[in-house]
Design goal:
It is a single chain. This protein is an alpha+beta fold and about 210 residues long. It contains 7 helices and 7 strands, in the order H-E-H-H-H-E-E-H-E-H-E-H-E-E. About 30% of the residues lie in helices and about 20% in strands. Strand 4 (about 115-120), helix 6 (about 130-145) and strand 5 form a beta-alpha-beta unit. The N and C termini lie far apart (about 35 Å).
């Protein structure tokens, strides 16, 4: 843990919401393949054939349209002014595919913000950037007035290729302070971070 913390400090990370101004950085980070298989982080927003028939340039244009409409679909991580990581976080209602998932079905009726995807530049992986992105996402949701941040990591004892753990790992969520609240599949838990409301002068903690 201490070694990972030192790596993060060495990277001097900063985090910024994806806006029109930073779109070029998003393209630079995702590269020609749109991160993975031409996804452009649209996987959770498109169901079935709608996704498979629109990977590549179509998915890129769809994501750009989201950003152009002033919606913030996630945050970029920077190291020395260079984009090195990405986390997708929006209200759960922004992800239609989640609404039809048996494994990741709603835990309850509370409104939550969902973390659905990570992408870290290859040479910057295994350096704790995912944990930093998670903490930044919590702060972002807090600034938007959100109360609960939810994630759907992979929890497996087997080492898997990065392409198969794009929703993050359970260990990273734990390090960022998230707690497991449900598990409908052996390897797919649901984690939450409940944002505490600040205590005002009129409130007592006792």
């Amino acid at each position: 843990m201490e070694e990972e913390s030192n790596l993060i400090e060495e990277l001097d990370l900063s985090f910024h919401p994806l806006t029109q101004k930073l779109w070029r950085d998003f393209e630079l980070l995702f590269g020609r393949n749109g991160a993975c298989g031409g996804c452009w982080c649209m996987y959770w927003k498109l169901r079935g054939k709608e996704f498979s028939e629109n990977t590549g340039s179509n998915a890129r244009q769809m994501q750009k349209a989201v950003v152009d409409s002033k919606i913030i679909p996630g945050l970029l991580a920077y190291s020395e002014g260079y984009p090195v990581g990405w986390i997708a976080v929006e209200p759960r209602s922004a992800y239609p595919k989640l609404a039809h998932s048996r494994v990741l079905k709603p835990v309850d009726e509370q409104e939550v913000w969902s973390i659905t995807c990570f992408f870290v530049e290859k040479k910057h992986r295994r350096k704790g950037i995912t944990v930093g992105l998670l903490k930044a996402a919590v702060e972002h949701v807090k600034a938007q007035g959100g109360k609960i941040v939810e994630g759907y990591p992979v929890d497996s004892s087997k080492n898997q290729a990065d392409a198969f753990v794009y929703t993050g790992t359970a260990s990273a969520f734990k390090k960022a302070g998230f707690i497991e609240v449900a598990r409908n599949s052996p390897t797919r838990p649901i984690f939450r971070y409940v944002i505490q409301s600040p205590i005002t002068n009129h409130e007592s903690p006792f």
